[in-house]
Amino acid sequence: MQGLNELIPRLQVRNITKSYSGFFANNQVNLTIQAGEIHALLGENGAGKSTLMKIIYGVVRPESGEIFWEGKRVDITNPAKARSLGIGMVFQHFCLFETLTVTENIALALPASEQWNLGQVNRKIRVLSQEYALDINPDSPVYTLSVGEKQRVEIIRCLCVATKLLILDEPTAVLTPQETEKLFLTLQQIAAGGCSILFSSHKLQEVRSLCTHATILRNGEVIAECNPQAETIDSLARMMIGEDEGHGGQGEYGKYHTPPTSPICFQVRDLCLESKHPLGISLQHINLEVRSGEIVGIAGVAGNGQRELLAVLSGEVICPKADMIMLGEIPIGDCDVPQRRRLGLAYIPEERLGVAIVPNMNLLENALLTGYSQGLLRNGMIRQRKLKAWTRRICDAFNVKQVGLNSLAANLSGGNLQKFIVGREIQQNPTILIAAHPSWGVDVNATVTIHQAFMEMRNMGAGVLVVSEDLDELLTLCDRIGVIYKGQLSPFIPIADISREKIGRWMGGVSFV
Ligand SMILES: Nc1ncnc2c1ncn2[C@@H]1O[C@H](COP(=O)(O)OP(=O)(O)OP(=O)(O)O)[C@@H](O)[C@H]1O
């Protein structure tokens, strides 16, 4: 016979409502999670998933509704209150101090009453990272970590305190398939110990493999509950998006483009660069070329030099020699970011907030930040009407859900922000687009929109270089793929000749032969 405690849900959310300027992010939402359950929260970009998670974690206060924790009504006024109940959360955008080490960051989040010293925290991190295969060096300063590694720090931070409900907002968005598999074993291990997990993801195959319950939101309302394992990817996508609207499914693009013989539009020649950071990765003899009308992908596990390579390709770091990077016939290795942009290089960085976007600027200002050379300025003055039309076109073409072009970028949902960044760069018709994790956190439909936009650019003769830890994305999108490992690039293989196993082995450090 079940004990009374096992019958009482761990968490019950009843009729939660939260609106922004009259727009309902959550409308009368109900959600029940049992102890030890892995529960998915699904919905397209802007459906209200993060808002609901933030309400449960005490970051956002609802206007009405109730929350019951193990049968008792609670008022979760702030994250400290949530943590005291045993609720931990890993956010889509990380909350780490860049200049502190992993250990220092985690120590800051531990309850003062438990009086941990840094040595104990360091040891605890090593134990947890081993136990849950969350590979991380506790002594690394956070600014040296890739996005994937920062996510691991966030997960370990939650695991350091006894947690009864772990909330993960898009945890696998930047993990490789192998890392995702490992993470899922971790999550299953955690759930088997009685901790509940609330998990949001746009990768429906993952949801089907991991979760036994799902609540589906559309336009802020719960529109269905189901067992994802009893559904298909198609039926889940239909529930999220609606019966009548098209949904792309994942990775259905038809035939690949034949490898082009067109001119090389972007080239890196024997680029060697010592990392200035003690824990950074030095780039060794990097050679690559992208032809006009070609999408080239660079795969690799986080922390193998992707960040250093992107910095030098985008112009954030200047090359030792100008002709180490060529844009067509022009050496650009010694050009700074604005010069490279003016010559036709567009860039979608790995980090959205603070690098791609200034959160406290509105959409118009953020559009201007990289689009200024598109006729949006005259005599140093902003052409307001042109800027408005330009920004509106980005939002329309990429279906960016927003309440107005004057709204702050920080108020966009994660996926809508990513669509905005991608649209802003593509609309500049660059000669070469360099993109890091282009579909990170975007829903099924938006992923298709972004991938199709890349393919259209390619078909119009632009070159595209995609750096991603999502192997599936690269296999879907690219004409040729190479791997970066410890600062070195493998040969690039045409998509028709690629074996997933070989790429996986290269990603794992097996020599490039
Ligand atoms: N602070 C805020 N101010 C104004 N609007 C907001 C704010 N936070 C969220 N919203 C809006 O509420 C809606 C729901 O956002 P939310 O982040 O919950 O969506 P989501 O389902 O998590 O989307 P995604 O999958 O893209 O992360 C969006 O339209 C978003 O723009």
Q: What does this molecule look like?
A:
Helices cover 33% and strands 23% of the residues. The protein is an alpha/beta fold. It folds into three domains: 4-241, 3-Layer(aba) Sandwich (Rossmann fold), CATH 3.40.50; 248-344 and 431-513, P-loop containing nucleotide triphosphate hydrolases (Rossmann fold); 353-429, no CATH class. The radius of gyration is 23 Å and the shape is globular. The N and C termini lie far apart (59 Å).
Topology, element by element:
Blueprint (H helix, E strand, L loop, with lengths): L3 H4 L3 E10 L2 E11 L4 E5 L6 H8 L7 E6 L2 E3 L4 H7 L1 E4 L11 H8 L8 H14 L15 H14 L4 E5 L7 H16 L3 E5 L3 H7 L2 E6 L2 E6 L6 H9 L22 E10 L9 E9 L2 E6 L6 H9 L10 E3 L2 E2 L5 H6 L2 E4 L14 H9 L5 E2 L2 E2 L1 H14 L16 H13 L5 E5 L7 H16 L3 E5 L3 H7 L2 E6 L2 E2 L3 E2 L5 H8 L6
Parallel strand pairs: 3-8, 3-9, 6-7, 7-8, 13-20, 13-21, 16-19, 19-20
Antiparallel strand pairs: 1-2, 1-4, 4-5, 9-10, 11-12, 11-14, 14-15, 17-18, 21-22, 21-23
Helix pairs in contact: 4-5, 4-6, 5-6, 12-13, 13-14, 14-15
The structure holds adenosine-5'-triphosphate.
The site of adenosine-5'-triphosphate (ATP) has 18 residues, from helix 2 and helix 14.
Domain module tally:
3
* CATH second-level architecture of the largest domain: 3-Layer(aba) Sandwich
Query: What is the number of beta strands?
Result: 23
What ligand molecules are bound, each kind once?
adenosine-5'-triphosphate
* Structural class by secondary-structure content: alpha/beta
- Largest beta-sheet details: 7 strands, mixed
Oligomer: single chain
Number of helices: 17
What shape does the CA trace take?
Answer: globular
Arithmetic mean of pLDDT? 88
Pfam families: ABC_tran
Organism: Fischerella thermalis JSC-11
Keywords: ATP-binding, Hydrolase, Nucleotide-binding
GO molecular function, one term: ATP hydrolysis activity
